[in-house]
Design a protein that fits this description.
The complex is a heterodimer of chains A (441) and B (472). With 441 residues, chain A is of the alpha+beta class. Chain A has 10 helices and 18 strands. In chain A, helix 1 (2-18) crosses helix 2 and helix 4 (120-134) runs parallel beside helix 5 (196-209). Chain A starts with a helix and ends with a strand. In chain B, a hairpin with an 8-residue loop joins strand 12 and strand 13 (354-355). Classes of the chains: A alpha+beta (441), B alpha+beta (472).
Chain lengths: 441, 472
């Protein structure tokens, strides 16, 4: 551990000696494993070993970056990088890297994830759980993914630290009929409490309920969002609270700081907490990560920043630095006061949506977009699921939808799925009013 | 590229009880230039290099990769892949469709070598483009410009005797603009891509295209009217034709998707055995032929051999409106008792090769664009699109116009604001009654795989005329 940190610090010292003004080096030793399965059988098991140092340096406000693998050709790489900086152009908005020395929380990563001998066993558990719900005609597919990273960071501006990051995720989609499917996920940073069968059961339950779907009708509905699909919707808002999105007009939150953007029941945070798949104790500038309340009881409180964007917005970094732009780690929606069943009971005529994909915008600044619900889509009448539906598209506006949240469940789930429910989130069941659905004609 | 180490790794794998092994090395010199509002945010330049092994043993597949070029690491990844292949414990054993061993070297030539273009010139090119766009007389409060340059060297070796080396330079650009007028905004992006050298910039006419987009967006805000919803004729410009060909022909014709291998991510297909749609079924009018062709020289999706060492060729997907040929790799082809048609692609050494499109487009007809329009009494000409998407069985899609005009009695009239076609794959392609003669291409990044593998592709085609579709 010390050896890797020393080597990382050496890179910083060398770059400074060669003339760089500010330098950050971050070494990641990563072991990633994935089991992919379909038709209830394992298709491929994949292992990636990655050894990389990301180096970012500034020279007279020119920002350049590279990657060095396994500490090979360090001097040569740094000379080239500095040469690149000297022919590059000044970035007038570059505000420097974070300065100071920090104490970091101790990582709670689970080493057992790295040592997992037989990850396919988790897949079989999930498939069997789904089979219990669906029966012998089940067709299921998905992935099991594990991550274990040792991270070493050194900055010429002071921050130095080590971190260990772990994650495990099981995602399963089960089919009871060709057009009747359900999707379940189980996401964690540790093996403790990780239950693949929970994801399999949920996928199977939804698939069974989704049998014999009818084509849905266009119109405005009250919609109950399952935690998985709500994780996708939260991902939309999450991408729009990065200061970078504000500066590039790719957000509905431009000029909305301090303003009411949601009902009082909505509190939205970014928090790479130890339980989350995005767990980390510092960001890419070495600033300690923390919980940031983005929307507090409906009021937009902050954008997410690195040191440079914070200077532009005359505030402090929120510990969200990525290599170039601030990112989002793990969104949390504060739990509400209602039971899931109460949300359903409050719905006279509406929809229950469980998953979605292919979200695309007409205009990020305005917020008009559509996304295509998949897996279980259900008509709800007088609090009861009446009919399985298919072939509907959610066509609405990101800001309007945030304002139409009418109920949040106490129950929350840590969800992540592919690029669709991303970044990871702690997501409840949510009741939203007046959601517009369209269909093919 | 240490080809000897790749050969060594293969030899080490072959000494195990395997049914098949391949080793693929890739070195990618990657430059990324990122500008925001005309200022260079960062210049990222790195070399990513590594190799992977894919092993079939006991009817299962194991894959492992590393970016450490050493014999110790090579043995470790082979051992891992071998172990994982055996642990798959499949009831239905996997095997690959047969292929002949290939020994080949191929490369894309550059008229103006990217390596000879100084970094400062690369950056200045984009600064100048941004200046020209933002001074065009339209209020543009935000721009993003990105340039990607990838010099990709690969070496492929498998246990059947194939040895293939290749070099492909790929260059790409992405521009995004926000136009603000009268307190309203509109946005547009354009993507450019080519396999080849810096000469791409002369062909792309980025400034001209983006200034055109800016003026179109201004018109949408200040002049465009809404379409009165109803059944009408729709002319699709090549950009719209291309996205439709990609989404509702290319994707559903991927054999791995049809077989369910992507079921929990990119989804399945409306085409499957026992469905109303299979090879030989009509899905479009007889004026519609959609092909996928990796061999288009200098295209963004260009290759001569795929990442399983299979020679590339043109694939006729929908032929005169009939479902004709799926995109296959060796795994899917074996399951369907056919041959691979060279559709296996991987974006890097650390990703498995899966079934992908390359350049998907509609073949041209005989009419001019003007002749298509002349015969429309009432309709819309959708030249380009903003929002689009399609469901995961690739049947329900929607395209919203960015640049679009009303057509009355054969003449283009006023611009229309965001006309929408939301329809099924069958309705879309069977409504086509005429196809124009000039094919145009757009670069795009196709998403598929887990972890995601954004693959460079072309989408394209001529103008299409659809009769009597619902536009709102």
């Amino acid at each position: 551990m010390t050896d890797m940190l020393n080597k990382t610090q050496e890179i910083v010292k060398k770059a400074k000696k060669l003339g760089a003004d500010e330098v950050i080096a971050k070494t990641t030793l990563g072991k990633y494993r994935q089991v992919r399965f379909s038709n209830n059988q394992v298709d491929i098991t994949v292992a990636w070993n990655d050894y990389v140092t990301d180096v970012a340096l500034a020279w007279k406000k020119r920002l350049v970056a590279t990657q060095i693998h396994n500490f090979v050709d360090v001097e040569k790489n740094l000379k080239q990088l500095l040469k690149l900086a000297k022919v590059s152009k000044e970035n007038p908005t570059f505000g420097g890297f974070a300065k100071g020395t920090f104490r970091y929380a101790r990582s709670k990563a689970d080493r057992k994830i790295m040592e997992l001998e037989n990850p396919t066993e988790f897949v079989f558990q999930a498939v069997e759980a789904a089979r219990k719900e669906v029966g012998s005609k089940i067709d299921s597919g998905g992935i099991l993914f594990t991550k274990f990273e040792n991270v070493y960071l050194s900055s010429s501006e002071g921050p130095t630290g080590t971190d260990t990051r772990s994650a495990i995720e099981l995602s399963i989609r089960a089919f009871a009929e060709r057009e009747a499917s359900g999707h379940g996920v189980e996401c964690s940073s540790t093996l403790k409490g990780f239950k693949p069968s929970r994801a399999g059961t949920k996928a199977g339950e939804i698939a069974v309920m989704a049998k014999k779907p009818k084509i849905g009708e266009e119109g405005a509905y009250d919609v109950i969002f399952d935690p998985l699909i709500f994780g996708s919707i939260v991902g939309i808002w999450a991408s729009m609270v990065s200061a970078y999105s504000i500066m590039t007009q790719m957000s509905v939150f431009v000029n909305k700081l301090g303003k009411k953007v949601a009902p009082k029941i909505v509190t939205l945070k970014d928090n790479p907490a130890p339980y989350s798949m995005s767990n980390r104790v510092f960001d890419d500038e070495g600033v300690p990560t923390k919980e940031n309340v983005v929307i507090n009881h409906g009021v937009l409180k902050t954008y997410l920043h690195n040191t440079s964007t914070a200077k532009i917005f005359k505030t402090k970094t929120t510990g969200n630095a990525g290599l170039v732009a601030p990112g989002v780690w793990n969104m949390e929606i504060d739990a509400g006061e209602m039971d899931k069943d109460e949300l359903f009971a409050d719905t006279k005529r509406g929809l229950y949506l469980t998953n979605t994909w292919y979200t695309r915008f007409q205009n990020y600044a305005k917020g008009d977009f559509s996304t295509i619900p998949r897996d279980g889509i259900f008509l709800v009448e007088k609090g009861e699921i009446k009919q399985s539906l298919k072939d509907l598209r959610l066509s609405d506006n990101a800001l309007t939808m945030l304002g139409n949240i009418a109920g949040i469940s106490k129950e929350r789930q840590h969800v992540h799925w592919w690029g669709e429910a991303d970044p990871p989130s702690l997501s409840p069941y949510v009741l939203m009013k007046n959601v517009h659905m369209t269909k093919s004609r | 590229m240490d080809e000897d180490l790749i050969d060594y790794t293969l030899e080490y794998a072959e000494n195990k009880k395997i049914e098949y092994a391949e080793v693929r090395g890739q070195t990618q010199t990657a430059d990324r230039i990122v500008l925001r509002n005309g200022n260079l945010e960062a210049y990222v330049s790195a070399v990513d290099t590594g190799f992977c092994v894919r092993i079939m043993a006991n009817g299962g597949i194991g894959f492992a990769s590393t970016n450490l070029w050493s014999k110790t690491e090579a043995k470790q990844i082979v051992d891992l892949a071998f172990k994982y292949a055996n642990r798959a414990n499949r009831k239905e054993k996997l095997f690959f469709a047969k292929e002949k061993a290939v020994k080949a070297k191929w490369a894309v030539t550059q008229r103006k070598k990217i390596e000879n273009v100084p970094s400062e010139e690369r950056v200045q090119t984009f600064i100048d483009i941004d200046k020209n766009i933002t001074s065009c007389g339209v209020n543009i409060p935000a721009t993003i410009s990105q340039c990607s340059i990838d010099l990709i060297t690969k070496y492929f070796a498998n246990s059947e005797g194939s040895r293939i080396s290749s070099f492909v330079p790929k260059i790409g650009a992405y521009l995004f603009i926000t136009v603000a007028e009268q307190g309203k905004t509109e946005q547009a992006y354009e993507q450019f891509g080519r396999s080849g050298g810096w000469e791409a910039f002369k062909e792309w006419n980025i400034t001209e295209k983006m200034v055109h987009d800016a003026k179109v967006l201004k018109n949408v805000i200040t002049k465009a009217e809404n379409v009165k919803p109803g059944n009408m004729d729709l002319i699709c410009g090549p950009e719209v034709t291309g996205i439709a060909a990609h989404e509702s022909c290319g994707h559903p014709m991927e054999a791995d998707r049809i077989l369910g291998r992507e079921m929990s991510q990119a989804g399945r297909s409306f085409i499957y055995k026992s469905s109303p749609y299979w090879i030989g079924t009509r899905i479009g009018s007889n004026t519609v032929t959609v092909v996928d062709d990796p061999t288009l020289e200098n295209s963004y999706g260009y290759y001569l051999y795929d990442d399983e060492g299979v020679k590339a060729r043109r694939r006729f997907l929908y032929k005169e409106g009939i479902i004709n040929e799926f995109l296959q790799n060796r795994e899917s082809a074996a399951k369907m008792d056919t041959s691979s048609n060279g559709s296996s692609r991987s974006i890097n050494y650390d990703r498995e090769a899966i079934v992908r499109m390359a350049n998907t487009f509609v073949l041209p007809g005989k009419l001019s664009e003007e002749e298509l329009i002349e015969d429309v009494k009432h309709g819309v000409y959708m030249k380009s699109f903003t929002e689009w998407n399609i469901d995961d069985k690739r049947f329900n899609q929607r395209y919203i116009g960015r640049e679009a005009y009303l057509v009355e009695k054969g003449e283009l009239k006023n611009p229309v604001a965001r006309p929408i076609i939301e329809t099924t794959t069958e309705k879309f392609w069977t409504s086509v009654d005429a196809v124009s003669k000039e094919v145009k291409f757009d670069a795009a990044t196709c998403g598929k795989g887990d972890p995601s593998q954004g693959a460079p592709v072309y989408t394209g085609g001529p103008c299409l005329r659809l009769r009597g579709v619902f536009v709102k």
